[in-house]
Amino acid sequence: MAAIGRTAVLIGDSQSEGAAGVSAKDTWTNTGLAKLGYNVVFCGRGGTGFVAANGPVGNYPDALEKGHWNVPYGPAPLVVIEGGGNDAGRGATDDQIIANASRLIQDLRQTYPASRFVIIGTLAKGAMSGGGRRTQVDSLLGAFAAKNGIPFISAGDWLTAYSLTDKMADGVHLTGAGHRILSDVLAGKLAALGVAAP
Fold first, then answer.
1. d(CA 28, CA 158)
2. Which DSSP string do the residues of 10-69 spell out, in sequence order?
3. What is the DSSP letter of 91?
4. What is the pLDDT of residues 102-122, one digit of tens each?
5. Across the strands, what pairs with 9?
6. Which of left, alpha, beta for 95 (phi over 0: left; psi -120 to 50: alpha)?
7. Cα–Cα distance for residue pair 72/9, rounded to 1 Å
8. Which residues are CB-contacts of 3 (< 8 A; sequence separation ≥ 6)?
9. What is the pLDDT of residues 78-88, one digit of tens each?
């Protein structure tokens, strides 16, 4: 029980799983949560999202409902959902994203009824800097979170706001240096929400 009492369940895509030579433990989401004292359990897969699936691993609600993830048992104090980039890239509609986000939250609240929830939006350049659909999905998720009373951390302009466009490994994923910068940003945003590990 002591271990679950400091566990953050992190649901996400390749931003959290790692890509382009960066391991899961070194991603900005994992490291940001670890800086607040959490043991992070990642549930997800690169190429997935609220609507997007990746071969054998379903989209977020399907993966949870079909047991594709090994979610921890017990009263984890924090559940963090990150994503939207693959949905943006594959043409998922607003209605599809919201419907599946609603399913996911409903299912997760049954699994973790006492947990606090945070949604992290879609990492992008920002609306005025070419963020395009990724920034739109970030805003969509922000509105969804507000409607459902869930704290939201927008990442829809972070690549521009934190001068990270030169720290991209492949146009979508950050280099190790980029992950380190954003891990500090995320830790600060999470701390401001008052969700440090108990």
1. 12
2. EEESHHHH--TT--GGGSHHHHHHHTTTPEEEEEE-TT--SS--BTTB--HHHHHHTT-S
3. T
4. 999 999 999 999 999 999 999
5. 41, 79
6. alpha
7. 8
8. 39
9. 999 999 999 99
